[in-house]
Each structure stands twice: as structure tokens, then as C-alpha cells.
Amino acid sequence: MTFKIEKKIASYKVLSTEDKAxxxxxxxxxxxxxxESMHENVTRPEIxxxxxxxxxxxxxxxxxxxxxxxxxxxxxxxxxxxxxxEVFINSKNMEHFQWVLALTRVISAxxxxxxxxxxxxxxxxxxxxxxxxxxxxxxxFMPSLVAEIGCAIESHMKQIGxxxxxxxxxxxxxxxxxxxxxxxxxxNDTSSLDENSAFPAKALLCGKCQTKALVLMDGCMTCLNCGxxxxx
Length: 232
Ligand SMILES: [Zn+2]
Fold this sequence. Notes:
It is an enzyme of class 1 (oxidoreductase). The protein is α+β, with helices and mostly antiparallel strands. It has 2 domains: 49-159; 170-223, no CATH class. It has 5 helices and 8 strands; from the N terminus they run αβββααββααβββ. The chain has helices at residues 17-33, 97-113, 119-125, 145-159, 170-187; strands at 49-55, 64-73, 81-91, 134-135, 141-142, 204-205, 212-217, 220-223. The strands form 3 sheets. Strands 1-2-3 form a 3-stranded antiparallel β-sheet. A hairpin with a 5-residue loop joins strand 4 (134-135) and strand 5 (141-142). The relative contact order is 0.09. The mean pLDDT is 84. It binds zinc ion. Zinc ion binds next to loops. The site of zinc ion (ZN) has 9 residues, from loops.
């Protein structure tokens, strides 16, 4: 069978048997469930809704604005799902321009590929700047600007329901508040009167939640933020 190609060839790829089988399989799956899913060739709707997150680091006088736009799949059905589609980063500070631009393109490509994109958050948050990190309000340690971007994506994913918040239950919260009062009474610590510091001034950095909230209680290093304790 011969085909006459009328249009110009923009790109080409030889499909392997596996490629064909996978394409048929995914087409069938979609047909059976009649569901939209995220994939590389999904067409971008004219309008997307999203959120913009402001990041202000002590390392630059200009803030950074991260915009994450979402696509709503299977709108109006019980399978309705909001997924991030693209990310843009804007700043007056052009110092890291090419790397930031490259990062946004790669992240957007991962979003559009479909599948689980939540791993991005952990990967980005684990980037340490060799020049050193800094503490944010509430005593959270931020190891780099890339980690800040990871945190913004994380809060967005939590907001749209892709990531579940690992919240402590009420009993655990009460327990940590009681522990904190005990510590403050013991050390005559008045840092709780200071709005900016959520935890005692003498607290050390917790390796689990990266917050300055680790205190020595009853001979054990205990984190007043996430409850992590070396003594179990
Ligand atoms: Zn902790």
C-alpha cells in the first residue's frame, strides 16, 4: 500500500511492534473507560487556570513568581481530576535566567507526560546550594532556590489534591503542645511570645522535617514540629 504525503515532513519515527501494541492498548483503555488522561500529545486548551506563588529569598532583593497552570480532565464527571500542565517562573532578577527557564521547560514536559509527577517535589527539595541555605519564617530550613521551587510545586499539588498532607492527628498535636510548654517552663524560654519563631530559640534543626524544632526532652531529641524522636 502506498501513501502520497502531501504535507512537508516535520519529523518522523519508525514505530516498533511494542510501540504499536502500546498505542492500541492505551487507545482501547481510553475507549473502554471513555476517560481523558494526560499524555504527551494532549492539546492545550486556549484557557488554563492556575495559581501564582511568590518566593522571596534573603539571597536576592527581587522576588520570584512561580505560576503553575492546571488542566481539568474529565470535567463534570466523577473522574474529574485537576493536573498541573505547565509552569512559568518570572523575576526581575535575571542572574539565573537560562537555568530557571530550562528547569521550567523540563518540569512542564514531565507534567505533560502524564503519570505520577509527585516525585519532582522530593527531587527538587533535595537540592543543596553549595553557597548555603537559609531559614524561612517558622524555622523551616531551605537548602536552595531550587528547593523553594519544589516547595511551591508541593503546596500547589496539595491544593489540587494530588498530594496528601501528612497532618498529625489532634492527639499528636496536643502531645507536642504539652511537650513544648514543658520545655519552655524548664528552660525559662519566652520565644513563644515571638510570632516569627514558631519553636524555642534553642531548638536544633530536625533532619526529618527540616525545621528548627528539635529539643532535648527526658534525655531524647524530640522534634516539636513533626514529632520525630530518636527514642521512638
Ligand atoms: Zn521534625
